[in-house]
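Known limitations

Files may contain more than one protein. Parsers should not assume a single record per file. Below, a two-record file is shown to illustrate correct handling: read the sequence, read the token line, then continue until end of file.
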Amino acid sequence: VIPLKFDLAFDYFNGIARVKLDGKYGFINQNGEVILPFEYAKIGDCFFNYYPIKKDNKWGLADLLGKVVVQCEYDNIEYDIEKNQMRLKKDDQYTYITELIGEYYDRTNS
């Protein structure tokens, strides 16, 4: 059960819940402890065990432990279900993350 002190709360997924407090989003664990501070304008849906996080109008990624694994420096993050990948855009550069190889690689936008 998520405590009522939050403005908005999503269901727990893999032991964490996205919650909103005073207009900012963060994560709590099942004990109600904050594991990702309330400093994000938005947190998207989980994909490949990463959550897109938005801060200062830029996007990054947090993992299921609440650790920021990609800093909020990207203009956009998109999911491509057909290709089984996540695409992060910064200026005219794309970084692709695929579940199969579990690593990042860059490609220039053409």
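...continuing to the second record:
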Amino acid sequence: GALVAELMSPRRSADPHSAQLVPAADTSALLAAVRAPQSEAIDANRLARCLIANRMGGAGVIGAAYIVYGGRPAQVILTPTGRPGEFNALVTTRDCDAGKPDTIARAVVTE
């Protein structure tokens, strides 16, 4: 969590597709955050609604994690890209839900 906050600088965007692209050097921190043990349960139904709000409806959730991004609470959601070892990473506020995309950043992360 803290590593992600130190690596990336946030920028809020009303349009999910105009969100900040995470620098390639920082994407490994997103993958590490999803793989780390989570202290709080994440509501799978809310994640699905968040993906719909971000025009990613129907994408399977590979993993998700609460992180600290730019000093404030956020979450990262990983979805498949269709290519082995590569995932879409969507960073949003923790209250992202139907009709409220709250997209902060997007990236493609690789293993």
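Parsers that stop after the first record will miss the second one. For reference, the second record is described as follows. Residues 51 and 57 are 5 Å apart (CA to CA).
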